[in-house]
Amino acid sequence: LLVDDSIVVIENIFRHYSKKGADRLSGAVRAVNEIGRPTNLATFTVILAFLPMFWVTGMMGPYMAPIPFNVPVAMITSLAIAYTVAPWAAYRWLRLAPGQHVEEHAPGWLERAYVRVMSVLLDSRRARVGFFFAISLLMLLVLAMPAFKLVLFKMLPKDNTNTFNITVDMPAGTALEETDRVIRRVGDIVRKVPDVTDYEATVGEPGIIDFNGLLRGAGLKGGPQYGEVRVNLRNKHDRSKSSIEIVRDLRPKFAQLEKTTGANIKLVEDPPGPPVRATILAEVYGPNYSELRRIAKELRTNVFEKTPDVVDIDDSTTAETTEYRIVVDHKKAALAGILPVQVAETLQAFLGGYNAGMVHMDQEKEPVLIRFQIPVSDRVEPSDLRKIFFTNAQGNEVPLTDIVKIEAIKGPQPILHKDQRPVVYVTGEMGSGSQVYAVLHMWEYLRTHPLPDGVKLKQYFMADPDTTGYSVRWDGEMRLTLDVFRDLGSAFAVAIILIYLVLVGYYRSFTTPLFVMGAIPLTIIGVFPGHAIMDLIEGNYYFTATSMIGVIALAGIVVRNSLLLIDFILDFRRAGHGVREAVLQAGITRMRPILLTALAIILGTAIMVADPVFGGLAVSLISGTFASTVLTLFVIPLMYYVYERRQERKNQSAVA
Predict the structure, then answer these.
(1) CA–centroid distance for 73 within its chain
(2) Is the entire prediction scored with pTM above 0.70?
(3) E strand or H helix at 233
């Protein structure tokens, strides 16, 4: 984008220098003045295309904000350079070889081919109709590609990172030692991967809170049944396999470990964009929380686990646990001469240990605590309480079990709320595909199949759910995808309106801007097939949020080409040429700068094609620019030609 203005200026200076006897200084000034107004307008259309991205809402807003801020600054700077540095440099150093000075710049083979094809379209009504019909049919076929899954949609693809996380959830009530054994087995699997440099395991508490864990709530988890393993890989530039492939290869091994240990093992990859609680997140709402837990279990078993490519399935319900309440029998305790507070203090020391004092050691800088702690193996089961005795004032030993009652009760389960409404979450991750199609598969299943107990869930995507009955709202990355594409689509619509209004003011016409903007729809003819071709080459290549940014950028970029064409057509008309000659000469004159600016965009963005996140942006710009540039050279002049011919016939009829 930064070199587009300079390309147009330099090319026009070269064209003026090609004329025999041209004065170098006045030629440069005339060349800049000639393309000054359309170049100014083209630059501001690019700026207007990006500005509405300031209003992208939600967590994606901060990701997008630098684009509409930096693009206008860069474009205005490039325009200033194109009007100062570029003409000065051309005046100083641009020298034409002998024989290049001719009365008019001789058309090359490309211009001659253009003239032959364009002449047929201008002179033959049947050829024009066939051409426009073919373009319309091609547009319809391209727009139908997503319906046949030839173009796949996704918020953002996974990025190739240097780290990922493994979380282990054991059944409630699992001893810390058992969780530790599972974590060590996870480590045994991980260390066999050649690209792993090191890993860090934590048991009983969360690991270091990272960007992803802040939103997923990993920092709030803990307890003897929980563990984490943070895995670090070799730098992505030093290994042949991406982190995405490494994680995919590890999943079957951990699935086998889950079967033998009963653990729930999830591989969490750092998100390329805003983090979400889970890639696939079903929020279940309803009036009865016990019923919500049961519905969530059925949703997990009958829907999530039966959907292809959905992995790391979990829910927010916890297993029922048994707690033991120790109740002091005050009458028996009084007869035995034991105070209830003694029971509480003794139980605290038995379960948690106590500090008996401090010892000063020569090799230590600080005093060392003397701590007494009963071995874990002697304080596991309620029957271990029989080992506790008290000595009363008479010197008699009184067993704890003689003065207390041990009651087994059901442990409390958490009740989660979102926006002050009780909710149960069912979560899942994608193995390699897009969450859009997994969620649509689940949505279609729930729409046509009630759950086993006959529960029919109302489903919501964007709207707030009705909590008077039982309903499910699809959140997670699906909601983020819908929000972002809604906002980007709105930004695109606002950009189109702003560009149109500016063009109306420039041309003082409501019709001419429509010809200029006719190149915008033509970009889709390239964008969708470009993504489909990349999907055939690489597999699982998606139209993402960055692809949509590329489409928005194209709205400003391709208008530049149309502006140059229409402006030169109008200049030729004012010089006294007929419609046909003006259209043909404008295409010949502006073909070279249009192709040069298109090639600059294509070559400049080609380096991004292989990037996992920004590849979609590159494909949109490359394929959209290629298709719109080729078609713009024919479609826009032909549309103007047909319109002007009709206006001429109307005027002739009115005169007659």
Answers:
(1) 25
(2) yes
(3) strand 226-233
